[in-house]
Amino acid sequence: MKYPAIQSFEEVLSRLDEFDAVIDVRSPLEFAIDHLPGAINCPVLDDEERIKIGTLYKQVNTFEAKKVGAALVAKNIGHHIETRWLDKPRDWHPLIYCWRGGNRSGAMAHILAKVGWPAIQLEGGYKAYRNYINHALEQPPAVPFIVICGTTGSGKSRLLEVLYSIGAQVLDLEQLAAHRGSVLGNLPSQPQPSQKAFESAIWQRLRHFDASRPVFVESESKKVGNLRVPETVIARMRASPCISLTLSRVNRVRLLMEDYAHFTHNPTILNTQLDCLLSLHGRDKIGRWHGMANAGQMPELVDELLLEHYDPAYLRSISRNFTQFAQADVLALEDIAPAAFLRAAQHLHKG
């Protein structure tokens, strides 16, 4: 094969995990929105340089833009070779892409191939990959979902974590979305990914599952924070067999106090989030909940939120949305100790 070789995403898909490096040469901002699984960002133009060259194209002419751009691209590619790849052997096998498989990835692939490395340039670039993802999620792999249902605080996310740790197949949408799925579910230290990155992460998990084994997933709504679960995925989840996870309300309060410590230790942040419930519960009730938070009555507040907000909302939605919930097997947790979750996970994984 002559290098650099130009190949479509369909051609490289079966060996996508076998490349020694998947190199995204787009700018850092483009890379942050979404990228191929496992890609590293080695921009041939950084964000400021990309704006500079784009301005020259528009305000001066193509020739001037290409001259300045070529100097920047050559310098940046040289820097990447010097700082990242001088130790790579002759058979180091990279896949390189940019936005549309054009000049940026072409320049990198050409130089790496001239060095002697078997470089592959992705035809159509990220845009071709994104088109593939869109079509793939319209008809995702037919993996057999088992849906973990349960009221807020019953330990669904912890159970998924333990299931994963003992070798079960798990699609943890909240982990992929960096959100716990409720009005209080945002993680202050971790922003949510973009919608495109969320969909890429879902596709990446789905494509590696063994369709002969169950995939455990939580009973999510259509949105996890600001992100939408692909319609086909949510539809398959909602038609799948269910497990009803139960835990006493006392233990649910304990679990939520642990998982939401960032709120329970900061009444101001908690009260800001509680304001999102004004339209559902009215100013008087929200004001009373504010007062409980400010007074440090966190266990009492959590218990009341479960009783008056979360549990009624769950009961209204679960049977309507998950068609097999009425036939769900009940799995009772006796407490929130790690051993209790391990026993529950082992029971499901063996089953």
Brief sketch in words of this structure:
The chain is of the alpha/beta class and 351 residues long.
Question: What is the distance, rounded to the nearest whole angstrom, between the alpha carbons of the first and last residues?
Answer: 49 Å
Radius of gyration: 25 Å
Number of domains in the coordinates? 2
Secondary structure class reads alpha/beta
Q: What is the 3D form?
A: elongated
Number of helices: 16
Number of strands: 12
Beta-sheet strand percentage? 5-15%
Q: Major β-sheet, in short?
A: 5 strands, parallel
**Name of the level-1 CATH class of the largest domain:** Alpha Beta
What is the strand arrangement across the widest sheet?
1-5-4-2-3
Q: What are the low-pLDDT stretches, counting only 5+ consecutive residues below 50?
A: none
Query: Which CATH-level-2 architecture of the largest domain?
Result: 3-Layer(aba) Sandwich
Helix content: 40-55%
Order of helices and strands: EHEHEHHEHEHEHEHHEEEHEHHHHHEH
Mean pLDDT: 94
- Write down the CATH topology of the largest domain: Rossmann fold
Describe the structure.
The protein is α/β, with parallel strands linked by helices and 351 residues long. It has two domains: 5-136, Oxidized Rhodanese, domain 1, CATH 3.40.250.10; 141-350, Rossmann fold (3-Layer(aba) Sandwich), CATH 3.40.50. Helix content is 54%, strand content 12%. The chain contains 16 helices and twelve strands. It has helices at residues 9-13, 28-33, 47-59, 62-85, 103-115, 125-138, 156-165, 173-177, 195-208, 231-238, 249-259, 261-264, 267-274, 278-294, 298-321, 338-350, and strands at 5-7, 21-24, 40-41, 94-97, 120-122, 145-149, 169-171, 215-218, 223-224, 227-228, 242-246, 329-332. The strands form three sheets. It has a five-stranded parallel β-sheet. Strands 7-8-6-11-12 form a five-stranded parallel β-sheet, sandwiched between helices. Strands 9-10 form a two-stranded antiparallel sheet. Strand 4 (94-97), helix 5 (103-115) and strand 5 form a beta-alpha-beta unit. Helix 3 (47-59) packs antiparallel against helix 4 (62-85), helix 6 crosses helix 9 (195-208) and helix 7 packs across helix 16. The mean pLDDT is 94.
